[in-house]
Every structure is written in structure tokens, then in C-alpha cells.
Amino acid sequence: MFEDPKFWLLISFILFVILMYKPFNSMLIGGLDNKIEEIKKNINESLQSFTEAELKLKEAEKKTADLDKKINDLLNGAKMQSDSISKNIVEKTKQSILSKEKNSLERIKQIELSAIQTIKNQASNELNLLISNYLKNLSELDKSAILSKSISEFKSLN
């Protein structure tokens, strides 16, 4: 048995396996440990990136909500301002219309008074002309009778 080369080959192989088990095992386990650490590192980086992305998403949503609120505030302010301007314009227009209506009524009254005065003046001129023509056609006796009657009526008024 000790002289058989197969036996020594078997012993050498067993010794080789026993001696190489520890270095191969540590290399194999060390390589796996390194790979596990690398995978853990990648997972942690991914989680950190995911957390950062979530924070950025929340920030963006908050900014969007803030912008929406600002837009709504601006729209409400613009609407209130336009309503105020519109009311102001309507009020000024009403005042302008009332003022123009008042001016128009005053002009109409002035025109009426002027027309009445013109008519009175024309009537007075026509009456004077008629009276003067009537008196020209009367005799002296009739003229003196009318004159004395007018004087007596005038005295009775005072």
C-alpha cells in the first residue's frame, strides 16, 4: 500500500485539497463578501438617490402649489381691480351723462327764454306797427278821445 503510487497520489491529492481549502475558501468568501458589499453600496446609493428624488418631488409640488396660490391671488386681485375700475368708469360715465343732461336742459331753457323774448319783441313791434297804422288812419277827434280815455285809465291805476 505505501509502495503503490496511486496511494501516494491519493494522499497528495487529499493534502493538496486540505491545504488549498482555506485559501480558496477565503478567496471565494472574500470575493463574495466584496460583491455583497458592492451590492449593498449600490442599494444604499439607490435609496439615497430615491430619497433625494422624493424630497425634490415634494419641493417641486410645494412650489407648484405656491405658484398656483400666487396665480389665484393675482387673478383675484386683478378681478377685484378690474371690478373697481369698471365701477369707477360706470360712475364717471353716469356723472358725465347727468352733467351733460343738466347742461342740455339749461341750454333748452335758455333757448326757450330767448325764443319767448324774440316772439315778445316781434309781437310788440307788430303791435306798435298796427297801433301806429291804426292811429294814422283815425281822425283828430278820435285820437284825442282815445288819448283822454288812456290818461284817465292811467290815473285810476295809481
Q: What is the element string, with H for helices and E for strands?
A: HH
Question: Count of helices?
Answer: 2
**Which residues sit in consecutive blocks of at least 5 with pLDDT less than 50?**
none
What's the average pLDDT? 89
Description:
The structure is a single chain. The chain is mainly alpha-helical and 158 residues long. Helices cover 96% and strands 0% of the residues. It has two helices and no strands. It has helices at residues 5-137, 140-157. The model has no long low-confidence stretch (mean pLDDT 89).
Attribute tags:
158 residues; mainly alpha; 2 helices
In summary, what is this structure?
With 158 residues, this protein is mostly helical. It has 2 helices and no strands.
Give the arrangement of secondary structure elements.
Elements: H1 5-137, H2 140-157
